[in-house]
TrEMBL record:
This is GGDEF domain-containing protein. InterPro entries: DGC-Regulatory_Protein, GGDEF_dom, Nucleotide_cyclase, Rev_trsase/Diguanyl_cyclase. It is an enzyme of class 2 (transferase). Residues 509-642 form the GGDEF domain.
Length: 645
C-alpha cells in the first residue's frame, strides 16, 4: 500500500506538474493572444481615426475660410453705407434695419472712450450697450489695433486691412455659437461689429463625423471602455498651468478620464514627439489600466487619441485559472476529473475568445460603415477590369448591388461606365504609391473618395463620403463672397478682380467701362428712409440690367448708389447707344412701395485700351468722367477726355 500510495502520489505530482505547465503555457499564450489582438485592432482604429481627423480638419478649415471672406464682404459693403453716418445717429432701430439688410444675426458699434478703453455705444442687443472691453484679452488688443489703423496680429482669428474676425465663440446674450467680425470705419472712427450664427461648421459633415466615430468606439467596440481626442497644444497650456482648469478644453471629443491621462506622467515634449502608437499599463487603485496612445495630428494641429481598454475578460481568465490550480492541488486524487474540467474550461475559453474576437471585428466593421457612405478594396485585373475585392456601406445597400455575395465583383456591373472610368484612373495612380483624393457626382449626390495602396499588395483600399451638403454650403458662401446682398449684382471686390484679370491678359479686343451714380438718391433716403431706399436700389439694379442685356460683360454695385458696367465693345456708336438706353430707363418716375420717385443717372465712360490699359486708371478715368458730367445740364453721359500735354 505504501508503495502504491507513493506511486499514486508521484503520479499525482507528475500529472499536477504537467497540468501546471500546460496551464502556465496556456495563460502565457492567451496573454500574448490578447495583446496581439488589441494591438492589431488598435492599429486598424488608428488608421480610421487619422483619416477621419484629417477629413474633419479639412472641412472645418475650408468652411472657416469661406465664412470669414463672406463676413468681410458684408461688412465692407456696410462700411461704405456708414461712411457718412456718425455713431450717435446709429440707434438700435437703425442698426436693426442694417442688420436685416445684410442678413446678420446682430450688429453693434464699438467706440473709443476715456482711459484707452473701448465701449459698445450702440447695438441691436440693447442689454450690451455700455459694456467696455478693457478686460476682453486679445479681443481688446485686436479692437485697439483696428482703431489705430493697424492690422491686428493677436495670433487668433482672421485679419486683413481694417478688418478682423475672432474665433468661433459663444454669445453672452443669445443661444449658440457665432462669428463676430469687426470693420474699422475710418471716416467716423468707430468699429462696425457684425456677426452671424455659426452652426454649420459643426453639422453632420464636420462635428458629427467625429462625434459618431468616438460614440461607436466607446459603445460598439466591446473592449474599448472610453476614448478621447486630445488637442496637444491646449494640453501643454493645461500642463504648465498645473491643470487649473477643471473643464479642460484639451479633450475635444470622447469621455476619457482626464486624471488617468495625468497619471501617465508624460510631458508635452514627449507627447509632441510621439510618432507611433504606444501601449501603457498603469497601476490604479482597482488594479491595472491598459491605455493606448495614438498620434493623429494633421498639418499644424497636433492631436492625440487615447483609448482605455476593458481588460476584464483577460483578468477573469487569470482568476479562473488560479482557482483551477488551487482546486487541483486540494483534490489531487481526482486529477483526471480536474484534467477533464481543464480541457472543457480550455475549450470554452478558446471558444469564448473566438466569439468575442468575431463580435469585436463585426462591431468595428459596423462602426466604420456608419461613417463613410461605403468602404471598399479593389484591384485591376490582367484584362484591365476594375474588380472589387471588398465593398460595404450604406450606398451599397441602397443600390442592392450585393445580395448573397458582396466581394469580387466587377465595378462596371454595379456602377455606370462614367463612374467606373473615374475610379479606374485614380486606382491606377494610387497603385503607384501616391494616395488619391477625388470627387465623383453620382445619382444627384457628390461623393469624395480617398484611396491608397495596401502595403505589400497590388490592391487599393478606400472610402467615400457624401459631401453634397458641404458643397452646397460652399457654393452659397462663394456666391455671398462676390455678390452684393441687396441687389444680387456682383460686388466691388468681384468687379475689380474681373477687370484686373481682363487687363492683365492684354487682350486685343476693346472694352468699355461705365461708372454710374444716381441723381437725387440722398434726397429719397432722407425723405422716405433707408428701407424704401433699399427697395429703390433693387429696382435701379433691375432697370440697368435690362438696359445692358445682350452685352458681354459684368454689372456690379460698387458703392452705396454707385454702379459699374464693364463690357466688350469697340464701336463708339454702340457704346453711346447702351449709355442712352440706361439713361432712358430713368426718364419716367419709378413706382416704389406706392411712391412715384424721380431718379436720374449720370454715366462716365472710359475705354480699354484707348484711354488706359491699367485697371485702376480705367476705373479712375470713368469715375472722373461721371463727376464731370453729373452737374452739366442736359447731358447725362460723357467719355473720358485725355488732357493735352
Amino acid at each position: 500500500m505504501k508503495r502504491d500510495g507513493k506511486i499514486i502520489l508521484a503520479l499525482t505530482m507528475v500529472i499536477a506538474v504537467v497540468l501546471t505547465a500546460v496551464f502556465a503555457y496556456f495563460i502565457s499564450r492567451t496573454e500574448k493572444d490578447f495583446d496581439l489582438f488589441y494591438t492589431r485592432q488598435m492599429d486598424n482604429h488608428a488608421s480610421l481615426i487619422r483619416k477621419t481627423v484629417n477629413l474633419a480638419e479639412s472641412y472645418t478649415e475650408t468652411y472657416t475660410r469661406l465664412i470669414n471672406e463672406d463676413l468681410y464682404h458684408r461688412l465692407y459693403g456696410l462700411n461704405q453705407e456708414l461712411a457718412s453716418v456718425a455713431a450717435d445717429q446709429l440707434t438700435p432701430e437703425v442698426l436693426m434695419t442694417y442688420r436685416d439688410n445684410y442678413d446678420l444675426a446682430g450688429l453693434a458699434i464699438f467706440s473709443p472712450v476715456a482711459d484707452e478703453d473701448i465701449a459698445i455705444s450702440a447695438s441691436t442687443v440693447v442689454e450690451e450697450i455700455g459694456e467696455r472691453t478693457a478686460f476682453w484679452g486679445y479681443w481688446h488688443e485686436a479692437f485697439s489695433a483696428l482703431l489705430q489703423g493697424e492690422t491686428p496680429n493677436v495670433g487668433r482669428g482672421y485679419a486683413r486691412e481694417n478688418f478682423w474676425v475672432g474665433p468661433r465663440s459663444r454669445s453672452h446674450y443669445m443661444e449658440g455659437y457665432f462669428r463676430f467680425a469687426y470693420y474699422h470705419n475710418e471716416a467716423q472712427g468707430y468699429l462696425i461689429n457684425g456677426y452671424i450664427e455659426d452652426a454649420a461648421s459643426y453639422d453632420d459633415n464636420i462635428r458629427n463625423l467625429m462625434d459618431d466615430l468616438f460614440a461607436y468606439l466607446d459603445e460598439e467596440i466591446s473592449y474599448i471602455q472610453s476614448s478621447s481626442l486630445i488637442d496637444l497644444n491646449a494640453w501643454e497650456v493645461a500642463y504648465h498651468n498645473e491643470y487649473s482648469n477643471p473643464e479642460d478644453p484639451a479633450f475635444i471629443y470622447g469621455n476619457f478620464d482626464r486624471n488617468l491621462f495625468i497619471q501617465l506622467g508624460l510631458t508635452p515634449e514627449e507627447l509632441h514627439a510621439m510618432t507611433e502608437m504606444q501601449r501603457h499599463v498603469l497601476k490604479t487603485a482597482s488594479g491595472e489600466a491598459l491605455i493606448y496612445l495614438i498620434p493623429a495630428g494633421v498639418a499644424e494641429h497636433p492631436y492625440l487619441v487615447t483609448a482605455l481598454i476593458d481588460d476584464s475578460d483577460h483578468w477573469l481568465l487569470r482568476e479562473n485559472a488560479g482557482n483551477s490550480f488551487l482546486l487541483m492541488g486540494l483534490i489531487a486524487l481526482v486529477i483526471v476529473l480536474l484534467g477533464v474540467s481543464f480541457v472543457m474550461h480550455h475549450y470554452r475559453s478558446q471558444l469564448t475568445f473566438e466569439i468575442e474576437r468575431k463580435e469585436a471585428s463585426e462591431a468595428f466593421a459596423r462602426s466604420i460603415a456608419a461613417l463613410p457612405e461605403f468602404i471598399y478594396r479593389c484591384q485591376i485585373t490582367e484584362d484591365d477590369t476594375l474588380l472589387l475585392t471588398y465593398n460595404d456601406g450604406r450606398s451599397v445597400a441602397r443600390e442592392q448591388a450585393v445580395a448573397m455575395e458582396k466581394h469580387y465583383l466587377k465595378m462596371n456591373d454595379i456602377y455606370p461606365e462614367a463612374y467606373t472610368q473615374i475610379l479606374h484612373e485614380n486606382v491606377e495612380r494610387a497603385l503607384t504609391g501616391v494616395a488619391q483624393r477625388f470627387e465623383v457626382a453620382y445619382n444627384g449626390r457628390i461623393y469624395e473618395h480617398y484611396i491608397s495602396r495596401v502595403e505589400n499588395e497590388n490592391e487599393v483600399a478606400g472610402f467615400a463620403t457624401d459631401i453634397t451638403e458641404k458643397r452646397h454650403q460652399e457654393e452659397k458662401a462663394r456666391y455671398r463672397a462676390d455678390h452684393d446682398s441687396l441687389t444680387e449684382l456682383k460686388n466691388r471686390g468681384a468687379f475689380e478682380l474681373y477687370i484686373r484679370e481682363i487687363t492683365s491678359r492684354k487682350p486685343s479686343d476693346s472694352y468699355a467701362l461705365f461708372f454710374m451714380d444716381l441723381d437725387h438718391f440722398k434726397e429719397v433716403n432722407d425723405t422716405y428712409g433707408h428701407l424704401l431706399g433699399d427697395h429703390l436700389l433693387r429696382a435701379v439694379a433691375n432697370q440697368i440690367r435690362l438696359a445692358v442685356t445682350g452685352s458681354e460683360g459684368i454689372l456690379a454695385r460698387v458703392g452705396g448708389d454707385e454702379f459699374a458696367f464693364f463690357f466688350r465693345e469697340s464701336s463708339k456708336e454702340v457704346i453711346e447707344k447702351i449709355a442712352e438706353n440706361i439713361i432712358a430707363g430713368f426718364q419716367e418716375p419709378l413706382e416704389i412701395e406706392g411712391h412715384l420717385l424721380t431718379i436720374g443717372v449720370s454715366v462716365g465712360i472710359a475705354r480699354y485700351p484707348q484711354d488706359s490699359a491699367n485697371d485702376r486708371e480705367l476705373i479712375h478715368f470713368a469715375d472722373q468722367a461721371m463727376y464731370a458730367v453729373k452737374h452739366e445740364p442736359g447731358k447725362k453721359y460723357a467719355f473720358h477726355r485725355k488732357r493735352s500735354v
